[in-house]
Specification:
The chain is built from 13 helices and 19 strands. It has 369 residues and is of the alpha/beta class. The chain folds into two domains: 211 residues, TIM Barrel; 128 residues, Beta Barrel (Lyase, Ornithine Decarboxylase, Chain A, domain 1), CATH 2.40.37. The strands form three sheets. Strands 1, 10, 13, 14, 15, 16, 17, 18 and 19 form a nine-stranded mixed sheet that branches. Helix 12 crosses helix 13. The longest helix is centred in the middle third of the chain and has 18 residues. Helix content is 29%, strand content 26%. Bound molecules: pyridoxal-5'-phosphate.
Amino acid sequence: MKRSWIEISRSRIAANYAAVRDAVGPNVEIACVVKADAYRHGAAEISRILAAHGARWFAVSSAEEGIALRQAGIAARILVMADMLPSDPGALHEFQLTPAIHSLDQLRELEELAQPIAYHLKLDTGMARLGTRASAEEIAAAVTSCQHARLEGLMTHLASAADYSRPQSQEQIAAFDAVCDGLRRHGINPPFQHAAGTIAIAYGRREAWRNMVRPGHAIYGYISPARGNAPPSLLHVVPALRWLASILAVKDLPAGAKIGYGAMFKAPAPMRIGILAAGYADGIPHSLSARGHVIAGGEFAPILGAVSMDLTSIDLTAAPHLKPGDAVTLIGEEGDCRQDAQQMAREAGTISYSLLCSISARVHRVYVE
Ligand SMILES: *Cc1c(COP(=O)(O)O)cnc(C)c1O
């Protein structure tokens, strides 16, 4: 019996990719973001599924993640978005990785490798995270002085793509345009420009799409809600991951019984509880202690008391027939009840991205149709 496991639907991953493809049309390249082990959906298998459905580009955070994809047999292009150059100078070339270069110093380092490597240059257009803030003139001088490193793309990242109440995205796009236009005047016009993740795709910020987009969350079936006066989402995706846990023990408690660490919950009346074989070491946020719920026997079952490292207690009053060995749903659907990662994250005071990435390695992964 497994303690806790996730089931990932191959057909939903493929359908979500197809939805992005339909939304952006055939002339926009899609770099599927499979960093952080594909938001815990499993980078190797997700990339195989997407490649089988036509994906030609993947984006990861580190060279290590890129090398793991190569070792899993992925032949598509791989963009490494957030790393130093590998300490092994031959690694980029050997594994055919395409670095996102985020400063002109880093570009000089890449050139010093004296290898024929394509790179995408990241521009900081106002997020103040990765990317160069150099002027078009400085960038043009650095790019044209390279003999070996070849500029293939210009990219940036939006800080507030979902926020339609403030102009930050327009300001960032204008800054991106200014540098791209400045570079064009110096005869620099690389094949790709890209600025859009899931949110800018979903809410139709076409000025950010250019000719490549970088969806992650949407591939897994999520689109964050927008703020302000946003257009309706033009993308419809479905969560691909279900998360289940086994009941280890069931017990009947008298009124007044104290449950778990710190006695955070005291039974107001006689009640039946279940002890789940999953806790915060599996990725259930500790902040769900005495709040939030799972789905047990097709009914919502509140979490009782503190979430502990390996165990979580739930109220089985509404599902008294459940017994040890039965499974409950943390994320997914049962009967008329459903809970997705966004709903669970909201109750935990976090975001769906963080919740998904926190599902730990000891939670078994199963791929289903
Ligand atoms: C993670 C990431 C993405 C994907 O973002 P989603 O919101 O998951 O689509 C795109 N671009 C960059 C630079 C990222 O770091």
